[in-house]
Structure formats: C-alpha cells, structure tokens
User: Fold this.
Amino acid sequence: MIRRFIICVLALFAGISALAQLEEEPTLTFPQSQYPQGFDYYKDILFYSNGTAVYNIRNVKLFEAGRTVKEFRINPTPYCFAVLSTKKGKSRVDIIALNKEDILHRFPEKEVGNATSVCYTPDARQLLIVCGDKLRS
Assistant:
C-alpha cells in the first residue's frame, strides 16, 4: 500500500514537471515595413510586391515602378524579372536585372496595349505578354 502511494506521488511530481516544461515559448514576429500584395519565388528565394515596388524576402527593394505593380514574374534562369505595371489604365512591362536595379528592356505602352498578364516560358527563352485576346512574345 505504501509502495503504491509512493509510486502515485512520484508520478504526480513527474506529471507536474512535464507540464512545466510544456510552457508556451514566446512567439517570434518579424514585422515587415511593406505589406505584401503579390508573391513569386525561384527555388528557395521568395519575392514580393507591395503594389508599387518589388522586394526580396530580406526587404531589399529590387525595383520601384512609380505606378501600380499588377504582376511580376522571375525569369527561370534567374537573371532578371518582368514587371507588369499600370497607371491610369495604361500598361507597361519592364524587364529588370535581378542583381541590380537596371532596366534591361522596357516595352512601351503602345506595344503592350492593355496587358493583363506576363509569364516566362519554362526554358526562359521568351517572355509572354497577354494583351487582351492576343499573346505577345
């Protein structure tokens, strides 16, 4: 009887110590100065847009559009990325070098018309621009 009592007391202390170890760890938060509105990734690297600029996950600005960023896509190589931006209903597509903020090519508004989407082909050889019911490459 005493043996069972001692076992119960030891089990009680073991249970209490186990519960003490299960205390919640503090939640770590890493606030962003920009609220992401769009995401794209390449392998393990994440990129996001806040609506006017494109950033990497370390919050380094890669491109400031000066207009509304509608969509952006990372080239599969990953040498550059394409940004589709709009201002007052007019679209523009810029191709930006990924390692610096250089504009490699800019498709003027006359060429892309009312573009709705951009996408790279899987072999990264072409950039496809959807302009209404037409596909431009």
Observations:
- The first strand starts at residue 38 and ends at 42.
- The radius of gyration is 26 Å.
